[in-house]
Design goal:
This protein is an alpha/beta fold. The chain is about 30% helix and about 25% strand. The protein has ten helices and 15 strands.
Length: about 325
């Protein structure tokens, strides 16, 4: 199957301050592409990577986000945008027709599919309607339906990156947290082997899935991971991708409980933070994503992987400097440094 991932492209990656966007930027650079790194913070680590064209942009909830992105793409002759953080998806979908009219490629699902993934209540409903095992979920006003004696998770309905996620053993604590966590929902806590599936869904709906255990997790990031195979997990991940009409690069998370049951907990419409393990295990995840992004065939034969490959993450000091050096760039984009 023909591929063309070696053709240099000018690709804008948003959210380069977080691990997914940062890692995606590095991978694209290794493949020889020119990367415009974009983030709302002038201190985002991805802006300091060598050979990155750094751009400070408005937050996704800023009314100027769409027009700024469209203007930026025109000024820098951007070929495509790849999202590294979920917050950028809704406003990017709104401005997508204008981007595509300028020749900028964006490969994300439709607005309804994106909503079903970033809204945890909607995601629960879609999975339940399709018979896919997922944790029981309640709204704060449904506390009278929560069984006694189970551990709970309180999290934002539209949160990301494990922010404002709390594990509690008492309903009284969960009730209190619902007053503090923005747009809170309550879920039954699931125990067992936690996993992430790195996925690429081509334009015909065919999915490749790379499974890895989340052996050690800190602040929502898999610090230590190991690739593995599991037919039931694989099949449920594919069912989940189909249920939400996923497209392009994404990741699915869940648990295999001690009694062997598989539960799906979430789907992120972006690359996972630990995806470099999938590539180290032999899957050409980002290269094939680029092919699909530019309308070329996705070679699923290049997305196979070896099991028993591990990854250990660590925090590194990327850059030390004077904040004043960033002030001019930040103020030019309307961001306070």
């Amino acid at each position: 199957m023909p591929t063309d991932q070696t053709t240099p492209r000018r690709i804008l990656v948003s959210g380069v301050g977080a691990t997914p966007g940062f890692g995606l930027t590095r991978s694209l650079l290794r493949l020889g592409h020119q990367v415009i790194g974009a983030d709302a913070s002038p201190l985002a680590p991805g802006l300091f990577l060598a050979d990155v064209i750094p751009q400070v942009i408005p937050r996704a909830d800023d009314p100027a986000y769409g027009s700024t992105m469209a203007e930026l793409c025109r000024d820098l002759a951007v070929d495509a945008i790849v999202v590294g953080i979920e917050n950028d998806l809704p406003p990017l979908i709104d401005v997508r027709p204008h981007l595509e009219a300028d020749g900028v490629r964006v490969w994300v699902p439709d607005a309804e599919s994106v909503h079903a993934c970033i809204d945890k209540t909607a995601f629960h409903q879609v999975l339940a309607q399709n018979g896919i095992p997922t944790p029981r979920t309640w709204q704060p006003e449904e506390f009278d339906q929560v069984p006694d004696g189970i551990e709970l998770v309180v999290k934002p309905r539209k949160g990301h990156g494990a922010q404002n996620v709390h594990f509690v053993q008492k309903q009284a604590h969960a009730r209190l947290l619902c007053e503090l966590v923005p747009e809170a929902i309550v879920q039954e806590r699931v125990f067992g082997c936690e996993f992430t599936a790195d996925c690429l869904v081509d334009r015909d709906g065919r999915a490749s899935v790379i499974l890895r255990r989340r052996d050690l997790v800190k602040a929502g990031l898999a610090i230590v991971s190991t690739t593995f195979e599991h037919s039931t997990v694989h099949n449920l991940v594919v069912d989940t991708l189909r249920a939400v009409r996923a497209a392009g690069l994404c990741c699915v998370q869940g648990f295999v409980t001690d009694d062997g049951r598989v539960t799906i907990t979430e789907l992120n419409v972006r690359v996972a933070g630990g995806f470099p393990l999938a590539e180290a295990a032999g899957a050409d995840l980002v290269g094939q994503m680029v092919n699909g992004l530019f309308g070329l065939p996705v070679d699923h034969g290049s997305l196979t992987y070896r099991t028993g490959v591990f990854l250990a993450n660590y925090v590194e000091t990327l850059r030390v400097g004077e904040v004043a050096e960033l002030a001019l760039t930040a103020s030019a984009k309307g961001v306070q440094a």
